[in-house]
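Anyone up for a design puzzle?
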């Protein structure tokens, strides 16, 4: 829990601590951000009432897949971020950027207790499309978490690549735009081939 709190208060110091630690010393933190990311994904999917997931099954699957999913997600993003960071004059490695992304995911780890309790107490409002005030509050809260995570990413990527936060911003923006373009191309290809 110390790394989680430090990530939110002093992201660069947390990044430096993570850089010097073995995985066995921070696996629980990675588990938490993985679980948080999985629950966030499920929350954003707004499943129909017929496909509401069991809270117990969701929790067990989140624990099982948390570390592999967050590791794979972070490695893929770090790989492309490393290319853009080097292109912008940074001096980073995929491992250092992966660790930076771990630290920037702290807001999702902080939400794990809320996500788990909410999914058990009221699974229909967690997994289903909720309208009205609860839906608006959930959307605003997810936006706040995303902005918070993005700000942490600016600090940690700048530290990992040893350049300014502006360059970290543009490195992240370039990767994000490339991912969006790739997703659009895959979608268009899918429509052309299967429709």
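Challenge accepted. My sequence:
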């Amino acid at each position: 829990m110390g790394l989680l709190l430090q990530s939110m208060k002093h992201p660069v110091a947390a990044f430096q601590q993570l850089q010097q630690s073995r995985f066995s010393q921070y696996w629980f933190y990675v588990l938490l951000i993985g679980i948080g990311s999985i629950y966030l994904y499920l929350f954003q999917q707004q499943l129909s009432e017929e496909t509401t997931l069991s809270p117990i099954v969701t929790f067990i699957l989140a624990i099982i897949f948390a570390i592999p999913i967050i590791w794979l997600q972070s490695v893929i993003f770090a790989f492309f971020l490393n290319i853009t960071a080097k292109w912008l004059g940074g001096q980073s490695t995929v491992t250092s950027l992966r660790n930076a992304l771990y630290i920037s995911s702290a807001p999702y780890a902080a939400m794990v207790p809320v996500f788990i309790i909410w999914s058990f107490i009221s699974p229909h409002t967690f997994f289903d499309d909720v309208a009205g005030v609860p839906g608006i509050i959930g959307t605003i809260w997810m936006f706040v978490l995303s902005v918070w995570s993005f700000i942490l990413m600016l600090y940690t990527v700048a530290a990992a690549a040893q350049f300014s936060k502006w360059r970290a911003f543009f490195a992240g923006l370039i990767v994000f735009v490339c991912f969006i373009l790739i997703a659009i191309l895959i979608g268009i290809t899918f429509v052309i081939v299967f429709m």
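A detail worth pointing out: Residues 55-87 form the longest helix (33 residues).
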